[in-house]
Specification:
The chain is 63% helix and 10% strand. The protein is built from 12 helices and 5 strands. It has a 5-stranded antiparallel beta sheet with strand order 1-3-5-4-2, with helices on both faces.
Length: 397
């Protein structure tokens, strides 16, 4: 886990190089953290969403030290620990920040903080801003000991569930080996190895059944969201007024439109690697059964069509949501500017959700196919091993 901690003293700003813009102040940093593409918005000690303007105003008038921290995990760790969503970060920070602040000499009754989760592919992280209601601490720079204690406060919360799980697994493994091995060290090692192999096999079976958890979706930039929102609005006008929203029930015009949209999204640079890996896994799995080029091409074409239609259904669900927004917010002949802005905001949220859902659908299909291919490879390896054993036994006879 990475932790960066900077302090602003009397308007002096230190921003890490990763920022796309230079806010120039703590208030600007909070605005950036809240509004940057991929941000899930501000949260704080209270359950309600903080008011950005009020927080900015408070920080602009604040005369004490403001500390900014970036807490980051690798995507692999975030996925394993379930820290690839805002909810887990909220819970962890609400428990950890008061303890970390105490290590800095800040009383909880005098503590103020806000944070924002950035669901960055490969680098999920949280921007955390801490300050005192009434400035008491005058030194912004933390000592080495304070930095270590602060980092431990966050790590304790982030890794708490995994530490509990590992302890339980270790205890269960110890008890199992003790009961089965009966003091035989060699037998104990064999049991441990068998259990680990079985756990890997179960994990592979879970992925093969479609139970794998996708990673973090690529970042969607404002221009991406705008294009998707426009396409969703166009597609919503082609939907029938009633009935189930699914590709097979759509009129031909809607089917043609949504399939074109699905193919366009699948070919976007952000999704292309997932698509290529999916198609490679299809080819590799097909080659386990045949080397006929026509059969391989047929299998790939079918797999591509299946994935395209799966993505198309995701887009249709998004269009249905936009259709509902349009019915609710545009049924009046005249709308004030506030209502128009609200409708646009809702449509943008649908577009963001569609982007993530398309990524999730493609990644789940890829992981499922790769896992199924790996299982078939193992089955074929075992079959070949049995054949060799039978041949060796026959030669002995």
């Amino acid at each position: 886990m990475g932790v960066e901690l900077d302090a602003d003293e009397k308007g002096v700003s230190e921003i890490s190089d990763e920022l796309a813009v230079d806010p120039g102040s703590a208030a600007g940093h909070v605005k950036y953290a809240h509004e940057r593409p991929g941000s899930h918005g501000l949260f704080s000690a209270a359950g309600d969403t903080p008011n950005l303007k009020q927080i900015q105003s408070e920080l602009e008038q604040h005369e004490g030290v403001v500390w900014r921290s970036i807490l980051s995990l690798s995507e692999e760790d975030a996925k394993r620990l379930d820290f690839d969503s805002r909810t887990k970060w909220e819970d962890a920070l609400r428990a950890a920040v008061p303890e970390a602040a105490a290590k800095m000499g800040i009383r909880e009754s005098n503590l103020r903080w806000v944070a924002a989760f950035h669901q960055e592919q490969g680098h999920p992280h949280v921007h955390l801003v801490i300050w005192e209601k009434e400035p008491e601490r005058r030194k912004g720079l933390l000592s080495k000991g304070e930095r270590i204690d602060v980092k431990k406060s966050f790590m304790k919360q982030i890794y708490a569930e995994e530490q509990t799980r590992l302890f339980q697994e270790k205890t269960a493994m110890r008890d199992l080996i003790r009961d089965l091995a009966k003091g035989d060290t060699e037998k104990a090692l064999t049991i441990m190895d068998d259990v680990r192999k079985e756990m890997k096999a179960v994990e592979l079976d879970l992925k093969a059944a479609g139970g794998g958890k996708p990673g973090i979706a690529p970042k969607a930039y404002p221009e991406d969201i705008k294009k998707i929102a426009v396409q969703m609005d166009e597609l919503s006008k082609l939907l029938p007024g009633k009935g189930r929203v699914a590709l097979k029930y759509m009129p031909e015009e809607a089917k043609s439109k949504v399939r074109q949209m699905a193919e366009h999204m699948m070919q976007q640079p952000a999704f292309k690697d997932s698509l290529n890996r999916y198609m490679t896994s299809v080819e590799e799995m097909t080659r386990l059964h045949t080397t006929n080029p026509e059969a391989i091409k047929k299998a790939q074409d079918k797999a591509y069509s299946d994935l395209r239609d799966r993505v198309a259904n995701v887009l249709l669900k998004g269009a249905a949501k936009v259709n509902k927004i349009n019915r609710e917010d545009f049924k009046k002949e005249l709308m004030d500017k506030k209502a128009v802005r609200e409708a646009s905001r809702q449509q943008a949220n649908v577009a963001k959700s569609v982007w993530k859902s398309v990524w999730s659908a493609m990644e789940q299909a890829r992981m499922k196919n790769e896992a199924q291919g790996e299982i078939q490879k193992r089955q074929e390896a075992r079959r070949q091993q049995r054949i060799r054993q039978q041949q060796q036994e026959h030669e002995k006879d």
